[in-house]
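[Q] Does anyone have a clean structure-token version of this?
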Amino acid sequence: ACPYCRRGHEDLTALLPKHPDIEVVWRPCEAHPRPEVYGTHSDLCIQALLFAAERGADTGAFHTRMYQAALGGSVNIEDPEALARFMDGLVDPSELLAAFRSGRYAQAVLDGNDYAYEQSGVWVVPAYRMDGRKLDSEAGIGVSRKQIETFLS
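[A] Here you go.
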């Protein structure tokens, strides 16, 4: 999981109230898509996000919980059962596990990866796009809050 993604998400979320005219479209993609062997695979996290969003769950609380799972070290985010249990209280774990097992959102993860890496020129996450402009992270560094603030202005 990506600590730079968490920081980028938190910084963007904190700065958005200053820019009520900006509508954010979240387009999740994996930091380390399969079959890459480096890093933890977050495809189940993305599937869980899509599941939660479809059910009207609080996506802010969802992101916070998912970053706790991914970066806290106490939950294996590649284990469907463990991840479903950890999301209890935000979504129904048994329904989420059934969605994982059905593969309902698997293609959406692949499509998101394709959109990011093939269509939008993302090489490192988090990455930001707006009105033809790009703000990309540097590997191992991310982006600063100041960079995001400048990008939004």
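[Q] Thanks! Anything notable?
[A] The mean pLDDT is 91.
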